[in-house]
Structures are given as C-alpha cells and as structure tokens.
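User: Earlier you gave me the apo prediction for this protein. Now I'd like the version with S-adenosylmethionine bound, so I can compare the two side by side. Same sequence as before, with the ligand SMILES added.
Assistant: Got it. Here's the input I'm using:
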Amino acid sequence: MLRCPLLLLALSLMGTGVYAQTRTAPPPQPKIGQAGKDVVWVPTPDVLVEKMLDLAMVTAQDYLIDLGSGDGRTVIAAAKRGTRAHGIEYNRDMVALSRQAAATQRLSDRATFAEADLFRSDFSDATVLTLFLLPEINMQLRPKILALKPGTRVVSNTFTMQDWEPDESVTVADCQVYCTAHFWIVPAQVEGTWRFAGGEFSLTQQFQRIRGALLSGANSAPITNARLRGDQIAFTAAGVRYSGRVDGDTMQGTLSSQESLGSWRATRTSR
Ligand SMILES: C[S@@+](CC[C@H](N)C(=O)[O-])C[C@H]1O[C@@H](n2cnc3c(N)ncnc32)[C@H](O)[C@@H]1O
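And here is the structure of the complex with S-adenosylmethionine:
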C-alpha cells in the first residue's frame, strides 16, 4: 500500500465522497443579468435561436461562431442541425456549463467553446456569425464583420448595425422579450471603375446598396435594379441584364437582353 500513496489517497477520498464531489461538481447555475465582461448574460429565447438559424440558412457545411455564447444554446442548437459550431465566451463558468451541456447531448465533437475575449478572438473562419451583444459593441465589431468573406451570414438578436440595414428582420411570436432577429449578408466590395468588353461601368456602394452608370463610348446609361448579395451581383444597364459573381478585382457572369445572351467579364481599374 505504501508503494501506491496516490492510490491510497484516491481511495480514501472516494470513501469520504470528496473525490466524487470534485469530479462531478456542476458549474454554478447562471443568473439572468449576471455580469459579463462587456455585456451581461441574458439568454436568447429558444424560439428566436431557431429563427436565427433559419434566417442564416445554416447547413452541415457551415461553421457558426457565436460571439459571447452564454450558456451555449445557439452553438448547441446549430450542432443539433449538423453544423460545426463554436462559442466564444469570457465567463469561465458559462464555458464549463456549455461544454457540459454539449457533452450530455453527445455534441462535443461539433459544439466547441473557447474561454476568451471576443475582441481578442479571430472569427474570420465563420460562415455564420451570431450575436446578442449591445448596439455599441455591434458598431465596434462592424468593420471586422464587413471585412469577412463576402457571403458570410450574420444574425443579431435585437441590436442593429445602424446604417448597415439588415437584409431581413423577423420578430417571432410566443416570445416575451428580445424577440427580433436581424440578418445581414456580408457584401463584396465593388466600389470603383470596372472595364469590360462593352465599355466601363462605375459603381458606388453603401454596404449592400449599389448605384452607378455604364459608359460606352460617348454614351452613358444609369444602372438600375442593382442587387448585391454577398458575392452575387446583378444590374441592368442600357437594356441588358448583367448577373455575375465578384472575386476581388474581377467579376464575371452572364448577360441577357431581348437581342442577345452571352457572358461578360470585368476587371476593376480603380477603386
Ligand atoms: C446577452 S448574452 C448572450 C448569450 C448568448 N449568445 C445567447 O444569445 O443566449 C452576452 C454574453 O456575452 C458574454 N460576454 C460579454 N463580454 C464578452 C467578451 N468581451 N468576450 C466574450 N464574451 C463576452 C457574457 O458573459 C454573456 O454570456
């Protein structure tokens, strides 16, 4: 026995119940309104969590990151849909609670959590970003969010991004407080002058809204019915509908008019 003092200690602790207690001691239960680093903890109602995931159209191919993940409910709900999901949460006990909930539901492989400050964390891998923070924190994060890969989907419980208007907002029924989800798709950066076989077009951009004109020789035609959704662009100019995909300083796709159908490719000559 003396050759195994650790075993002896463990056996005696098990006998007193101390070992069992430390091994299984649950993390403390959170209280709504408890302090967080920059935001208190208030959970998103489950009905809105599901709506946020619906709005973001999450699939098993996505990687969702919840900034300030609280008790882990959004991450776990996404993992239940087959999505790989990750929560970034400053409060150690909330991280422990989230990991325990994921383990209990056998989701630990898809639902992971980091104990970290969201302002010091890299979330650039996310294809879907979820938030329930505060208006001013959304605004601090906005430049970083706008620099994410075009097409990244962002959903915020209740709080907006000011003049970056949501692509869609939905309020759910059967919900008492914090019942509205706002949804954005990170737009490609398309502002500038673009040259293509038919001439040049110039675009100005405010988030997902674009305006501009087509210049062909001495002629100029306004761009109408313009639409930018992630990296997908479409607009009409001089009776031709252009649809395509933006990739950095190149965009290309198909064009159609009453007389013709074809393809186009443009490169940016100035920003
Ligand atoms: C309003 S709660 C939202 C919780 C969860 N996302 C949800 O929707 O149920 C905000 C969470 O952010 C956490 N938090 C606050 N400041 C943070 C920071 N700088 N880094 C990481 N987490 C933070 C808080 O501890 C809290 O759990």
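For your comparison, keep in mind: The two ends are 78 Å apart (CA to CA).
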